[in-house]
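Quick one: structure for this chain?
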Amino acid sequence: MNAKQLKALILPSTRRWFRAARNSPNTSLFDLLHGYIYARWPYLYIGLGTGEHPLSRKYSWVVTVLSKVISHSNNGHQHSQNGVSTNGKLTFAEGYHGKVMPLESITRLVMVQEEIKMPDLEQVIPYQRARALILQNPDHIVALQCPCRTARQNPCLPLDVCLIVGEPFASFVIEHHPQRARWITQPAAVEILRQEDDRGHVHHAFFKDAMFGRFYAICNCCSCCCGAMQFHRRGTPMLAASGYVCRVDETLCIGCGECTAFCQFGALSLADFTSIVNMDICMGCGVCVDKCAQGALALQREASKGQPLEIYQLLDMAP
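Got it. Here's what it folds into:
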């Protein structure tokens, strides 16, 4: 087989993927291969990572080895306050994490009409390796069956709620997973976000080092299925707070408990017939706010929870 024949066997999206990797200055060969494996076989990757895949027990050593490789020593980095261990090792969270976003903010992000290049959102994304917001063809959006939900025996439905945004990611996913992915418009993506919000699911803008250190997807997550939320509960800081917290107006709250049932982070509880917010674990997702028929809940800006990812404000601030 000559070079021309070999090239014909490689999908166009794969060639664009490798071209994008070459144009990403901080993407190593390991990152390139890691990203390709992640995007090419996400159901196996996520299934093994969460322990839900049938092969997980037999090949758990593979996950252990990869975790050690990914959490490689890198003393040259200036340590952030979130996601980096104190011994100089970059943790798994450094390379794969989500930014919690309320519905209004995530809707603005998915409706962006222009290409964006923000290579370093240090104040917004408190991680070292993956915090670039670079959108090429932002209207290229694919709805993918969620690998986390698909891995579960009794998943939340519907499945196709993961939104792959921009290039080269959207085309790569649609060409390699045609049975599990479909092209959608920006308004259709907004409708998926709204429906998931109604179901009480949290919106995350996901970043990954192996995806050229960039934002690449919006996931709509539930604590029962989401691998990132699962690891976050166990102490791996894979999620960055929205920059807001929930506040309760005690004069309006009737202590019905409806909001506590929808809190995916377990930050709401009842005491003396009033909702109480645990500020330490509230991520400011805003899911509970619309579930309160009394209007007793609201999101308020909280500096200790970081800076929000508000796309139009960031564009206004950009040079």
